[in-house]
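ESCALATION

Customer reports they have been waiting on this structure for their group meeting. Please prioritize. Original submission:
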Amino acid sequence: MSFSTTLYTLVLAAVSFGGMTACSSLVQSQSGVPIAIKNNLPMPVREAVVGSPAPEFELAKPDGTKVSLKDLAGKPAVLIFWTAWCPSCKAEAPRVNQLAAEYKDRGVRVLGINIGEGLARVKEGIKDFDIKYEVVRDADAQVAEIYKVVGTPTVVFLDNKGIVRYFGNKLPADYAVRLDKLFDSESESKTASVANDEYKGEKIVKTEVEWRKELTPAQFHVLREKGTERAYTGEYTDNHEHGIYHCAACGLRLFSSDAKFESGTGWASFYQPIAAVNVMEETDVSLGESRTEVLCSRCGSHLGHVFDDGPKPTGLRYCINSIALKFEKQK
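Update from on-call: job pushed to the front of the queue and completed.
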């Protein structure tokens, strides 16, 4: 048995023994030796990936048919990195099946990318998970590596121009809203503000020392240390004026008053951001339960959390700290 095979077997055994809810995976280095990925950690949003052109690839389906990134061009696409031994991948498969069915007539391509497993195991996984979407094999994990995949499942959204717009360990609760906004604006309805205010991918990176000099202690605690202001104390909780809410750290336009609603929770609440790409999401397990943290896409500052108990049309509630925002009144 080779070193690579031995390491792969040991990691699979460790994952199975631990009963993790978020699976580990292996990504091979350029030398071909698998690298064990840390287990039981929340999947980070990969800032180096989101907002960047999707890396090229060409992979084969179980029947040998080749699929490349060029085949996905022109419409939004969804990539699902998975392994047949991963229980979280199996749990996510029905939701991906639903997405594939809902968006098939609109041309959205859903592609399941299996990482590093043999053909027989891939076929078993397709049957066991009841996968209804296309599957290709990343046999040597090279595509997983260039996409910076660190665990399975990993979900990637590409817009119609091949730009990565979402990277996470599961389908976001508002996947329909996000996908709808990834179609070409000339053929799909968008609000005027989204076309002008969509985040373009630039980053603002500063040291924590620099942020401390620019922010008040209270702002720094929330924005940079992921703190939370007390309920009903925020400046904008009961703000009913018309305008735009910017990131208090970098000024990126995040939310419109048109999407603000009274949630009764004690925090400013919105049912959607100005544009889906203007905010990032990460899994937060700091309180012993899994929540979805919301961050500014440009500077990475903590804003609050998003929940799936909001009003129509999205069904979402972006629960945002007022101190993380700066309001610009408009006529």
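Sent to customer with the following note: The radius of gyration is 21 Å.
Escalation resolved.
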